Amino acid sequence: MPFNNLGFVFKHFGSIIYSKPILEDLCLFLHGFTDKESVLDIGAGTGVMSEFAYRCNENLKYVAVDPAEGMLKYALPYLETHIGAAEALPFEDNSFDAVFMGESLHHFEDIDAAFSEVVCVLKDGGRLFIYDFDLGTFLGKSIYMMEKLFGEPANFYEPSALKEILESYGFSVTVMKHGWRYTVSASL
Ligand SMILES: C[S@@+](CC[C@H](N)C(=O)[O-])C[C@H]1O[C@@H](n2cnc3c(N)ncnc32)[C@H](O)[C@@H]1O
């Protein structure tokens, strides 16, 4: 997808796809984080998920990474932005207390490389929050087929399958299903 040219669209309409239960899960995930802990938003785009997270906890250090500069340029100033891909994160090991992936996982080229990188940049006991679309639902399947048609990676999962993958990387995983969408809260 030409994300580099879609920054304006995501900045103004990207939040529509986040429903109330998703945002409640996100705030719950952030509950108990102490001041100055650091969060990396991977595939952050214009920073939609970090903006919602900031409303739950404005004392964290928010860092965004995305290959599309045309998306990142719309990020609000409290987001430290970096150009880069999930498969080769431009950060030192043990840098972050948490990682977000807001409807970005299905765009990654190489899921294994991405999760290996996440494990490296997370500190011991670090946490991961994922929001994406459920392949086991009609709408999830439809989006999968549409993205495949456009030559996208379309890494959509049924949440139970994603749970197994994350467990193989050492995460303890809680899945919350919300119709055709789901969230995953995981910790190392
Ligand atoms: C649907 S947008 C979601 C943006 C934002 N997280 C949100 O919730 O609005 C998907 C984002 O994933 C990014 N992306 C695509 N391939 C990526 C990769 N390999 N690594 C990291 N981000 C990637 C795109 O540039 C785009 O900004």
Note the topology.
Layout: H1 7-13, H2 20-30, E1 38-42, H3 48-56, E2 61-66, H4 69-72, E3 79-83, E4 96-102, H5 111-121, E5 122-133, H6 138-149, H7 159-168, E6 172-178, E7 181-187
Parallel strand pairs: 1-2, 1-4, 2-3, 4-5
Antiparallel strand pairs: 5-7, 6-7
The chain binds S-adenosylmethionine.
Describe what this molecule looks like in 3D.
With 188 residues, this protein is of the alpha/beta class. The protein has a single domain (3-12, 19-187), classed as Vaccinia Virus protein VP39 (Rossmann fold, 3-Layer(aba) Sandwich), CATH 3.40.50.150. The chain contains seven helices and seven strands; from the N terminus they run ααβαβαββαβααββ. The protein has a seven-stranded mixed beta sheet, sandwiched between helices. Helix 3 links the parallel strand 1 (38-42) and strand 2. The longest helix is centred in the last third of the chain and has 12 residues, at 138-149. The model has no long low-confidence stretch (mean pLDDT 96). S-adenosylmethionine binds next to helix 3.
